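Crash report, auto-generated. Payload:
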Amino acid sequence: MKDDIIICRCQDVTEQEIVDAIKKYNLSTVDEVKRVTRAGMGHCQGKTCRKLVEQILSRELSRPVSADQYTTLRPPTRAVPLDLLANAEQSFDKVVSRGRGGHNE
Amino acid sequence: MIRKVQMAVIGGGPAGLSAAVAAASQGVTVEIFDDNFIPGGQLIKQTHKFFGAKQHLCGTRGMDIAQILLDRCTQHNVIINQQATVTGVYANTLGVLYPDKFEEVEFKSLVVATGASENMIRFVNNELPGIYGAGAIQTLMNVFGIRPAQNVLMVGSGNIGLIVSYQLKQAEVEVECIVEALPQVGGYQVHASKIQRMGIPILTNHTIIRAEGNEQEGVTGAIISEIDKDFRPVPGTEKYLSVDTICLAVGLTPLADLLEQCGCKMTTISELGGRVAVHNHYMQTSRPDVFLAGDVSGIEEAVTATLEGQLAGLAAAKYMNIGNPLIIQNKMNEILIQLNEFRDGPFGEKATYGSQRLLKEYSYE
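Recovered output after restart:
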């Protein structure tokens, strides 16, 4: 077995892949790492790997990870099957448009 | 039609149940949403008696405390929705996922008592079958009555690592040793002494660097190593342990995703376990209709979770102008005194510093 360490178990992303991506694309935030490698995009939505990715980033950039480098959290926090969503009395669109949503709105 | 509730509580652990009872006792209609099969949170796995004063239900086994709180919920007509996962908090609506449906629930006030998730650490082969979080080991052993292992390496000597090691021994599982990355034991000395008397060594300044095994057999061994003050392995100090299970008890992170999503002001305080929502003494966040209690407000333990829950429930009732505000204020003052006494006592020292910082940030608003 290769001495590489799985960081995101949901998406099978290894530490080496994350380090390579940080170097290759000059990444500096957890969201950027997420978009390039998919770490944190699986079933648990980063609950297991978020802190580990922050640790790796901080080590590679030689500075602590600050608030503006954290990942943005958006609903849903868990996967929602589409058939249940379709059967819900109110459509999900309506819920989202009424809501405050994430940081970017 | 969107279902409407006066107060929604997310999480049915000690904090959520206490919040629900406290609010319901003032006349609030309360519904709890809990994502597990059995409500009670981590309490249902705690076979040991809790330390502390009788008035905080201490001296009672955790699983019995869960039953006491559940009985109080029944007395106060609190509805507990089971297998109900809240997937998002919107303006004043929750999205709730059940095994067979998805529904929206509108709330006037919300208590978030979602608890915490277990931390993971980096070591080679950390994805092998046979590597568990301490919570999973406790669930298998204490909820389902399944012997989870033959011999275990415990990683982490906080109270959870110490208590689960003790419980493993009670289930006649060998605990090879406990490794602790810091120079000193993390948990209470009284637990550590008990563990050492049982013959389980606690190796400080040590960590796991590699799991041995394969996909078919799972874990067959572990390599531990001494580490220096920067947590780097010291070459030549590696030791092989023949174990079939590795149990990780390396800290908790508040499950604060829902609070962040719904617009509460957040801050990062490492003493409290990571990102937490800024709140006042009465557990009210920067969003006046949203309250929080328990580990999600910063990692502590069950007694403080219960007291924080009571505060959050009462504060939510007061916010909605339900019940007698003077009686509620008196009750909240009493609970605050109890909470401070407990935190100043021998079993509450750890989180006080973090809590103070959190309140300081709130008062600068």
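Post-recovery validation: Helices of chain A lie at 15-25, 30-37, 50-61, 82-87, 92-98.
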